[in-house]
Amino acid sequence: MRRVLILHGWGGSDFPHWQSWLSSEIAKDYGCVSFLKFSDMDFPKKDVWLEELELEMQRFHPDTVLCHSLANILWFHLCNKQKMQEVEKLFLVAPPSLSCKIEELESFFPCEVPKKLYAKKTLLITSTDDPYLRQDEAQELQIALHVDMKVLQNAGHINTNSGYGEWPWLLEEIKK
C-alpha cells in the first residue's frame, strides 16, 4: 500500500465523509495513511494551513495525495512556491472556483493555476452540479492543469451531503 496523505477542506471531513472512510479503510489493511487535521477548520488561514501542510509533507513523505475542496487550492499554493518533492499520484476532488468569494476563505484567493502539480499522475474529479464549481470552470481548470478529469453526474460537492461516505471506486484507484 502507498503512503497516502488526505487533505480536507473547509470545515473538515469527519465521519461519515468519504475522506474519513477512506482513511480507516487504508489503515485497517495496515496501510500507511495521514489524515491531516488542519487548525481552525471553520475559519482557515492560508499561511497557517500552508505551514502545516509543508511540515506534514516533510514528516510523512507521501507518494499519493488526495485533496478535497479547499485543500485543492492549498495544494496549488504549495506548488506555486516550487519547494516540494514530486508525488506518484494526486487526486484533486471537487475544487472550488478560482474566483471563490466566500468571506471565511478570502486568505486563499486569488490563486494562480500552478504550472506544475508535482505529481507523476493527476486526476481531477468534479461533479455536474457542484455548487462551488461550475462545469465550464472545471473544464477550464482541466485544460489549464493539463490533467485527466472524471466528471460525476449529480454528485454535488462530492461530500457527505451528496452521498459520498463510502467510495470504493476511489480506494481501488489508490491501490492501482
Short note summarizing the structure:
The chain has 176 residues and is of the alpha/beta class. It has one domain (3-175): Alpha/Beta hydrolase fold, catalytic domain (Rossmann fold), CATH 3.40.50. It has helices at residues 18-28, 46-60, 70-81, 135-145, 168-175; strands at residues 3-7, 32-36, 64-68, 87-93, 119-127, 148-152.
Task: Describe this entry's structure for a reader.
This protein is an alpha/beta fold. It has a single domain (3-175), classed as 3-Layer(aba) Sandwich (Rossmann fold), CATH 3.40.50.1820. Helix content is 32%, strand content 20%. The protein contains five helices and six strands. The protein has helices at 18-28, 46-60, 70-81, 135-145, 168-175; strands spanning 3-7, 32-36, 64-68, 87-93, 119-127, 148-152. The protein has a six-stranded parallel sheet with strand order 2-1-3-4-5-6, with helices on both faces. Strand 5, helix 4 (135-145) and strand 6 form a beta-alpha-beta unit. The longest helix is centred in the N-terminal third of the chain and has 15 residues, at 46-60. The model has no long low-confidence stretch (mean pLDDT 94).
Whole-angstrom Rg: 15 Å
Kindly report the CATH topology: Rossmann fold
CATH superfamily: Alpha/Beta hydrolase fold, catalytic domain
What overall geometry do the principal axes of the alpha carbons give? globular
Strand order within the widest beta sheet: 2-1-3-4-5-6
The averaged pLDDT comes out at 94
- The CATH first-level class comes to Alpha Beta
SSE ordering = EHEHEHEEHEH
Count of discrete domains: 1
Largest sheet: 6 strands, parallel
Measured as a percent range, the helix fraction is 25-40%
How many beta-strand runs?
6
Protein name: Serine hydrolase family protein
InterPro entries: AB_hydrolase_fold (IPR029058), RBBP9/YdeN (IPR010662)
GO molecular function: hydrolase activity
Organism: Sulfurimonas denitrificans (strain ATCC 33889 / DSM 1251)
